[in-house]
């Protein structure tokens, strides 16, 4: 179930401890059934700590974080979730020093978290195709010629000429995606 958190407090209420975060990750990652991240086997055995698993086929031990952006780190999932919320709710981005101070981790760890999350945002799993009714529109960005200084005006520039074009695509009652297309003369849709 996808929830919208309006504040960091809402996020912490939804995930009060590390086990709640692990259970949430399990429900997302294994929504179609449990599998081994090493061999893909479906015979997965649980240990009593509810954090570690063992594959019945390749006999490898693993945690739910193996093969994800959270793998190979000792940072608790709760701090990862807080970092995700902070990054997605700061429109101008967030510095690693600020993230380190807010999460009480080292700057080096914050830098690592930011790089992993930025890399994950570029992958196809985070950019799944939009579904249902999808609408798109373009927008030209750039000042009006009449508002520019006389020496900077270009003759005959009206409308979208010599301006940068942005494309916006939105899923009805869902996600919005934008991308820079370039100037009008460079590309046509």
SSE pattern: HHEEEHHHEEE
Strand count? 6
Mean pLDDT across every amino acid position: 83
How would a crystallographer describe the biggest sheet?
3 strands, antiparallel
Separation of the first and last Cα atoms: 36 Å
Q: How many helices in DSSP terms? A: 5
* Percent strand: 15-25%
Label the structural class: alpha+beta
What is the element layout, followed by pairings?
Layout: H1 8-14, H2 18-29, E1 44-46, E2 52-55, E3 61-63, H3 77-88, H4 96-103, H5 107-122, E4 134-141, E5 164-171, E6 176-183
Antiparallel strand pairs: 1-2, 2-3, 4-5, 5-6
Helix pairs in contact: 4-5
Quick structural gist:
The protein has 189 residues and is an alpha+beta fold. The chain has helices at residues 8-14, 18-29, 77-88, 96-103, 107-122; strands at residues 44-46, 52-55, 61-63, 134-141, 164-171, 176-183. Helices cover 29% and strands 18% of the residues.
């Amino acid at each position: 179930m996808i929830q919208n958190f309006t504040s960091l407090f809402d996020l912490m209420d939804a995930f009060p401890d590390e086990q709640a975060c692990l259970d949430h990750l399990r429900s997302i990652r294994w929504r179609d059934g449990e599998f081994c991240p090493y061999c893909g086997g479906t015979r997965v055995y649980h240990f009593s700590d509810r954090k570690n698993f063992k594959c019945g086929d390749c006999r490898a031990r693993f945690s739910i974080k193996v093969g994800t952006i959270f793998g190979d780190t000792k940072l608790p999932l709760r701090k990862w979730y807080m970092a995700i919320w902070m990054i997605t709710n700061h429109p101008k981005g967030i510095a690693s020093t600020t993230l380190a101070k807010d999460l009480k981790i080292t700057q080096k760890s914050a830098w690592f978290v930011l790089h992993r999350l930025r890399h994950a945002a570029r992958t196809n799993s985070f950019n799944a195709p939009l579904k249902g009714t999808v609408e798109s529109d373009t927008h030209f960005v750039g000042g009006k010629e009449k508002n520019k200084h006389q020496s900077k005006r270009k003759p005959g520039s009206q409308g979208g000429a010599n301006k940068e074009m942005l494309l916006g695509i939105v899923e009805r009652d869902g996600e919005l995606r934008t991308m820079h297309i370039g100037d009008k003369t460079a590309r046509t849709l």
